[in-house]
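[agent] plan:
  1. take the single chain provided in the ticket
  2. run structure prediction with default settings
  3. attach structure tokens to the ticket
  4. add a short note for the reviewer (M.T.)
[agent] executing step 1
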Amino acid sequence: MKKRLTGDQEFQIMKLVLDKFLWIGTLIMVLGLWVMFTGKLLDGVAFMSIGAIVLVLFLIIIVKEYEIVK
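[agent] step 2 finished; step 3 output follows
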């Protein structure tokens, strides 16, 4: 039999996974900034764009998975 997770347990696991997406996106953007400072402007912009895409995916996952109530 499979075990069922409570809502809180599911939220904690999802939070750990999404935290990794946030760190990966941030690190990619920092790498892009460093590449831009070392003189390769277009390569740095490419890294920054990829990091931004990862962070947008992070946002889409959060909005899809959890209801955001105003």
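[agent] step 4 note for reviewer: The chain has one domain: 13-63.
[agent] ticket updated
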